Amino acid sequence: MKSITSKKAARALPFPRLNDNKYTRGVCELVVGSEAFVGAAILAVSAANRMGAGYIRAYVCEEAARVLHAVQPSVVTLPAGDYASASHNQDERHPRATVVGCGMRGTQVELRLVVDVLESTDAPVLVDGGGLAALAMPDGMAALKKRFIEGLPTVVTPHGGEALRMLQALHEQRALEQTASRGVLGSARDAKEFAARGARALVGNSTPQEMALALSRAFGVVCVLKGPDTFIASGDEESDRDVSALYQGTPALAKAGTGDVLAGVIGALLAQGVSAYDACVAGTFVHARAGVLASVDLGETCVTAEDVLSHLAPAVSALVRKLQKEGN
Ligand SMILES: NC(=O)C1=CN([C@@H]2O[C@H](COP(=O)(O)OP(=O)(O)OC[C@H]3O[C@@H](n4cnc5c(N)ncnc54)[C@H](O)[C@@H]3O)[C@@H](O)[C@H]2O)[C@@H](O)CC1
Ligand SMILES: Nc1ncnc2c1ncn2[C@@H]1O[C@H](COP(=O)(O)OP(=O)(O)O)[C@@H](O)[C@H]1O
């Protein structure tokens, strides 16, 4: 397994070119937050705005739009329900990406919205937080399969709990399908309980690396499995970079909202045309470095997700200095 270094992260970073405009620097769209989790939307959107995408469009609830107008007036806001009816395609000169799911609670309306996002853009999509539950549903799986066949990149960023739920849902669904196809008799409830037990047994003993790999292959996505150490699985069976590990974090990052910041960071890199795998490598590194720099300033105990956000710029500057030192 490869470990992510500052050199790899620095080389993946995008820079504005002399003749760029806000559209050529990439449009990052975020379909995030809910009435229950307004903060997740603010954190993800603010992180994306900080990480260099030229145009940030946030599809959010009214309260999140109100807060964003106050704290990030450069962000354009639209009602979350408007996403499906707008156009989201990209071309070579106008890259873009969509982040969806941070701060969602997993309601039917939200899960439908996640599937709409997967179906309605040819740009990279990052799915996080409560939105991840949509992927193991039949519509979500079908949308992912179509994106995979068409070569459209999808990134998922689960924490350990979300990864476990995704794998269990997947195994459960497969077991149910097998039961049905073999004509095994029994009540629907018994079949579901049996499938759930099998799924728990299958997933129970996996290491985080194995889970990241299983998720990336089963769903056809790049999987960033977050935790004290973070594992990135490319899902590419031909490649020698199946799983990479990031060991440079700090327990100061174990705070609510830091995952929302990470989703915005990776989303902005995707929107600037960085490949899915490189965006995950550079994004997780910058995020971890921001956590470390915040800890240096404030002490590990006192760091909040807002501090990680405010240390993204010094983290990027440190990487840029590294590149300059190497003469690249
Ligand atoms: N300020 C805000 O508005 C915030 C909103 N958030 C949003 O809240 C929604 C629910 O996410 P949560 O993660 O809070 O809750 P979840 O309901 O997704 O998961 C929490 C459960 O998973 C278990 N778990 C197992 N491994 C874990 C791990 N490595 N890290 C965390 N939990 C683990 C926990 O014990 C717990 O039972 C998401 O959409 C998320 O984006 C959170 O990001 C927190 C901040
Ligand atoms: N003990 C730890 N050491 C290093 N990094 C951690 C630790 N705990 C959590 N993190 C990082 O903090 C972030 C937490 O993300 P997540 O669990 O999704 O939080 P939230 O949903 O509250 O935003 C991830 O990037 C994870 O890798």
UniProtKB/TrEMBL annotation:
<keyword id="KW-0456">Lyase</keyword>
<dbReference type="GO" id="GO:0110051">
    <property type="term" value="P:metabolite repair"/>
</dbReference>
<dbReference type="GO" id="GO:0005524">
    <property type="term" value="F:ATP binding"/>
</dbReference>
<feature type="binding site">
    <location>
        <position position="40"/>
    </location>
    <ligand>
        <name>(6S)-NADPHX</name>
    </ligand>
</feature>
<feature type="binding site">
    <location>
        <begin position="226"/>
        <end position="230"/>
    </location>
    <ligand>
        <name>AMP</name>
    </ligand>
</feature>
<keyword id="KW-0521">NADP</keyword>
<comment type="similarity">
    <text>Belongs to the NnrD/CARKD family.</text>
</comment>
<dbReference type="GO" id="GO:0052855">
    <property type="term" value="F:ADP-dependent NAD(P)H-hydrate dehydratase activity"/>
</dbReference>
<dbReference type="GO" id="GO:0046496">
    <property type="term" value="P:nicotinamide nucleotide metabolic process"/>
</dbReference>
<feature type="binding site">
    <location>
        <position position="103"/>
    </location>
    <ligand>
        <name>(6S)-NADPHX</name>
    </ligand>
</feature>
<keyword id="KW-0547">Nucleotide-binding</keyword>
<dbReference type="InterPro" id="IPR029056">
    <property type="entry name" value="Ribokinase-like"/>
</dbReference>
<keyword id="KW-0067">ATP-binding</keyword>
<dbReference type="InterPro" id="IPR017953">
    <property type="entry name" value="Carbohydrate_kinase_pred_CS"/>
</dbReference>
<protein>
    <recommendedName>
        <fullName>ADP-dependent (S)-NAD(P)H-hydrate dehydratase</fullName>
        <ecNumber>4.2.1.136</ecNumber>
    </recommendedName>
</protein>
<keyword id="KW-0520">NAD</keyword>
<feature type="binding site">
    <location>
        <position position="159"/>
    </location>
    <ligand>
        <name>(6S)-NADPHX</name>
    </ligand>
</feature>
<dbReference type="GO" id="GO:0052856">
    <property type="term" value="F:NAD(P)HX epimerase activity"/>
</dbReference>
<comment type="function">
    <text>Catalyzes the dehydration of the S-form of NAD(P)HX at the expense of ADP, which is converted to AMP. Together with NAD(P)HX epimerase, which catalyzes the epimerization of the S- and R-forms, the enzyme allows the repair of both epimers of NAD(P)HX, a damaged form of NAD(P)H that is a result of enzymatic or heat-dependent hydration.</text>
</comment>
<feature type="binding site">
    <location>
        <position position="260"/>
    </location>
    <ligand>
        <name>(6S)-NADPHX</name>
    </ligand>
</feature>
<comment type="subunit">
    <text>Homotetramer.</text>
</comment>
<dbReference type="InterPro" id="IPR000631">
    <property type="entry name" value="CARKD"/>
</dbReference>
<feature type="binding site">
    <location>
        <position position="259"/>
    </location>
    <ligand>
        <name>AMP</name>
    </ligand>
</feature>
<dbReference type="Pfam" id="PF01256">
    <property type="entry name" value="Carb_kinase"/>
</dbReference>
<feature type="domain" description="YjeF C-terminal">
    <location>
        <begin position="5"/>
        <end position="319"/>
    </location>
</feature>
